[in-house]
Amino acid sequence: MNHKISSLFDYTTKYENSISNPEDFWGEIAEDFHWRKPWSKVLDWNFEEPKMEWFKDSKLNLTENIFERLLSTHADKTAILWEPNDPNSDSVSLTYAELFEATCKFANAMRANGIEKGDRVIIYMPMVPEAAIAMLACARIGAVHSVVFAGFSSSALADRINDCQAKMVLTSDGNFRGSKQIPVKAVVDEALEKTTTIEKVIVLKRTGEPVNMKTGRDIWWSDAIADQSSENEAEVMDAEDILFILYTSGSTGQPKGVVHSIAGYMVYTYYSFINVFQYEESDVYWCTADVGWITGHSYIVYGPLLAGATTLMFEGVPTYPHPGRFWEIIDKYKVNQFYTAPTAIRALQVYGLEPIEKYTLDSLKVIGSVGEPINEEAWHWYHENIGKGRCPLVDTWWQTETGGIMISPLAGITPNKPAHASLPLPGVQPVIVDAEGNELLGNNVEGNLCIRFPWPSIIRTTYGDHNRCKETYFSTYKGMYFTGDGVKRDHDGYLRILGRVDDVINVSGHRMGTAEVENAINEHPEVVESAVVGFPHPIKGQGIYAYAICNSSTKPNAEMESEIKALVRKIIGPIAKPEHVQIVSDLPKTRSGKIMRRILRKVASKDVSSLGDTSTLLNPEIVEEIIKGAGLE
Ligand code: WTA
After folding, report:
1. Domain 504-629 belongs in CATH node 3.30.300.30
2. DSSP 525-592
3. Is the pTM of the predicted complex or chain greater than 0.85?
4. Residue 614: which of 606, 630, 603, 629 has the closest Cα?
5. pLDDT tens string 523-545
């Protein structure tokens, strides 16, 4: 059955139906798939424990719904198009039949190397088709993948391996990114010195740089698949078995492993993909995210492939070898749907219109945005210069925890309003609450964004610590999932996401927890205490500003500042490096010893005209010193 929404009226009808009869609504969509055993109940849930079970008791394998389900009609259709970092190197195109064969071979290779259903496998790879093949092969044999963005440091990688007790790492020798060649295997080797659970490492040859291969542990990808059959019997899985774990930052502690289960995630990514992007059978779809993030999981790999789409993967960066690279790729492959992040748009805006003028971009039908609030200026620039004023711009709001797009225009179906994610998808019930949890009804209201009813791809738990899931998402407001975002419902009833209301900083669309960055800074032997806040950054959306109290060292501040920056880079990765580090003699604290971050945020934002009430501070005199130290007097 065709589940694509076809008009505003259709949207309204389906939305209402999805709210009044959620089980019938989702049950009908799930009929599109191939189930080994049908469900006994579409949904069983409570937000207290919390427990969310979708398509309860059913059995399936997600990859059978990409391959066996679609091969009779899609065998020769291109599944994955791959554009390398270097435009002069060969691109790759894999049909559904070829992708199936590659998935089966690699699934067999993993089994031959000891991986069984339920085992955790880390994928630490560049943007190559093998990264998608690795994910699908895990799903095929019921292994749980955890993709770690290949820009993370060895200690961040080790933390993730240890948290999920992974048995295998899939990686590459190196990674081409722009003009750089980045070691990957060397980072894995360093990480494995801090872990004990990894038995095998499978290494894809990409850059050809020399790497250390440990006998008995490390195997080349090509050797691992050499003698494997291209047939593989799919593991029969339970609907609620884990599909993957993806680590993400929150306001407290170390990153947590967000768990997604199979059936609900499958149904929701498929449904949201076809509807938000209005994908049509012969379209070429391109999402520029990295598979290390949720966007890469849901809207490069799973959603598009479940819908039988042609999905383009790009290895490189937007500005290499020239700032027209994205637009060149769109013309080269006649891309119809293009999905990127506001930070990329703002970075390219700086180059003006010249890099765009060489290309027609006339294949584009839909353009999309994800990862952070898109400011109006960037929205208009993108809409006018890339979408040529004729392509709907889908500003898609969602999170690692939601698994799929939650609030977004449906391209060409629901209205476009600059910088507004606008309306919820069918099945999504957003609620705006005030600080006390009272629901704010009507239009022209602003508050915290919660969701009051489960959708199929909702987070199931945080790996190894269910209580953390409950505390983080289901305890702030009783009976609701709390997103951590602020939102406004405008006078027309459209939703506009305002950004995080917790201690999460969004740097170039990447989530960073302040506590995580502070922990890294505090590793410096001369740092006594630190506090990290976000500040508005013209391209990255937000930048990281760190304040550090150091003990009586004789080192000049400039030296300490660069040491701290280098340390964060080493402990977490380049994306977490603070833009500014300010050495201070103390931090503004309340009488109960809490750091008053509001003041630190104001200073970091160079906005000290109204600092608000500082009379409750234990040490009000420090505020002036900090302002002075920031050069704001
Ligand atoms: C932010 C990325 C405004 C938001 C899919 C959310 C957005 C966090 C948008 C999740 C958007 C994502 N408009 N803000 N269209 N999309 N965000 O887990 O703060 O990496 O909570 O998932 O990004 O980031 P995550």
Report:
1. yes
2. TTEEEEEEEEEEETTTEEEEEEEEEE-S--S-HHHHHHHHHHHHHHHT-GGG--SEEEEES---BBTT
3. yes
4. 603
5. 999 999 999 999 999 999 999 99
The Cβ-side half-sphere exposure at 261, using a 13 Å CA radius, reads: 24
Separation between Cα atoms, residue 421 and residue 438, nearest integer Å: 23
d(CA 75, CA 94): 10
Q: H-type helices in 334-472, by residue range? A: 342-349, 354-357, 376-381, 466-469
Is the N-terminal amide bond of 50 cis, ω within 30° of 0? yes
The ranges assigned to domains in the chain are 8-61+244-498, 64-235, 504-629
Residue of 49, 571, 485, 65 whose CA lies nearest to 308: 65
| Ligand 1 geometric centre to CA of 371 (Å) | 4
CA distance 57 to 54: 9
Q: Which residue has the tokens 């004023």?
A: 389
Report the topology of domain 64-235.
Answer: Rossmann fold (3.40.50)
- Ligand 1, atom nearest to 408 Cα: 15
pLDDT digits (tens, 9 = 90+) for 484-526: 999 999 999 999 999 999 999 999 999 999 999 999 999 999 9
402 DSSP 8-state letter: G
What are phi and psi for residue 574, nearest 5 degrees?
-55, -30
Ligand 1: centre distance to CA 76 (Å): 35
Q: What distance in Å separates the CA atoms of residue 451 and residue 111, rounded to the nearest whole number?
A: 40
Which residue from 408, 496, 511 has its CB within 8 A of the most atoms of ligand 1, so it is best to mutate?
511
Bridge partners for 415 per DSSP: none
- Examine domains 64-235 and 504-629 and report if their fold is the same: no
Of residues 342, 473, 325, the one with CA closest to residue 400:
473
* Best CA proximity match to 91, nearest among 332, 363, 266, 437: 332
Helix axes 22-30, 262-276, angle to 10 degrees: 90
Tell me how far apart the alpha carbons of residues 50 and 88 are, in angstroms, rounded to a whole number. 51
Nearest residue (by CA) to ligand 1, atom 8, is: 399
Distance 39 CA to ligand 1 centre (A): 32
- Please answer whether residues 592 and 598 qualify as being in contact, where contact means their C-beta atoms are separated by less than 8 angstroms: no
Structure tokens at 522: 């505090």
> Using CA atoms, how far apart are residues 224 and 36, in angstroms rounded to an integer?
30
**Domain 8-61+244-498, what architecture?**
3-Layer(aba) Sandwich (3.40)
